[in-house]
Specification:
single chain, 109 residues, alpha+beta, Alpha-Beta Plaits, 4-stranded antiparallel β-sheet, globular, Dimeric_a/b-barrel, DUF1330
């Protein structure tokens, strides 16, 4: 099942380190089957509440691939380039299958 890495980034200081991070991240994802789904503000339109910052979403073919990418020496080497220059929250979340219905979450409880 697809796993997504979701980041909500704020206060990004767009300088040399962020540029270096952007230039390197694709190569860190490739061995794990990672790809971008969303990147940046995406011309967003806030429909409810308030939202500041940017959203980045990556997809990986499995939870183990996503975890292996994040822990990989290649990604860990560039991670400080982002964390020194942006505030944010990052999480991994599993996708749902094509037959998923909203009430399926009631079965988990």
């Amino acid at each position: 099942m697809t796993t997504y890495a979701l980041a909500h980034l704020r206060n990004v200081a767009f300088g040399a380190e962020i540029i270096a991070y952007l230039e390197a991240i694709d190569a860190t994802m490739a061995p794990f089957g990672g790809r971008f789904v969303l990147h940046g503000d995406g011309n967003k339109r806030v429909l409810e509440g308030s939202f500041c910052g940017d959203v980045v979403m990556l997809s990986f073919p499995s939870r183990s691939a996503a975890e292996a990418w994040y822990a990989s020496p290649a990604y860990q080497a560039i991670l400080p380039l982002r964390t020194r220059n942006a505030d944010g929250d990052v999480l991994l979340i599993d996708g749902v299958d094509d037959t998923h219905k909203a009430t399926d979450i009631l079965q988990k409880g």
